[in-house]
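Deviation from plan, reported transparently: adenosine-5'-diphosphate complex.
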Amino acid sequence: MIIAIDGPAASGKGTLGTRLAEHLGLAHLDTGLLYRAVACTLIDQKAALTDIAAATLAAQSLTLDRLADPRLRGASMGEFASVISGYQPVRDALLTFQHQFAAQEGGAVLDGRDIGTVVCPHADVKLFITAAPEERARRRHLELQRRGEPSEYERILNDIRRRDQRDMNRSTAPLKAAADAVTLDTTNLDADAAFEAALAIIKARPAQK
Ligand SMILES: Nc1ncnc2c1ncn2[C@@H]1O[C@H](COP(=O)(O)OP(=O)(O)O)[C@@H](O)[C@H]1O
Ligand SMILES: Nc1ccn([C@@H]2O[C@H](COP(=O)(O)OP(=O)(O)O)[C@@H](O)[C@H]2O)c(=O)n1
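Because the crystal trials were delayed, the predicted structure below was used instead.
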């Protein structure tokens, strides 16, 4: 079974993907980490974020073990990832990576921005996870504080809004719900309630899928 989860920044995609994968015994890929890893490689190489050739090479050379680097989860890496994610050759290289991951025995859960629309258009279940920007900023702010990273709520909110706009308006694989996705607004749902709601959607899917 393939489960595609998409949605804007800090909506809870990764948390939900991890829990669903664990519950259903499936592998899970947080595809945002792929874009973050490419951005991080450019920074390590002291290459500019505008260097499309270097970004493409980094995407082509990416391996799963690279995704464990804790630096990828920093707030600025999300912003850098959003910039390089607009380059078509980078997306093409990462598409191959994601297709290989999704093709594994038993299936997988993938979360990101274009899983239901581009990466896995034939997914068995497509979820589009949303929440009000203020709630998403609150969650990310708490997360950064818990990790001991400096964080200002207003700045996080502005960053999230700017990144959502960029992700929704880019010409290649923009953030949007697939026509056959089920939208789940988690503004007033905690992580447990969001998990239960997603599980109910999965169980209720049509029998032919
Ligand atoms: N439904 C929820 N209610 C409250 N907090 C949540 C919920 N889902 C996730 N979180 C928390 O919000 C933050 C962002 O969640 P995450 O899963 O990383 O989002 P995304 O993958 O969409 O960026 C994390 O700290 C996570 O623990
Ligand atoms: N499938 C995906 C996943 C992420 N991305 C890009 O990567 C950035 C970081 O994604 P992420 O999922 O790690 O970000 P958060 O939602 O965790 O803040 C996003 O803002 C997108 O620009 C993408 O273009 N396509």
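The longest helix spans residues 153-169. We consider this an acceptable substitute for the interim report.
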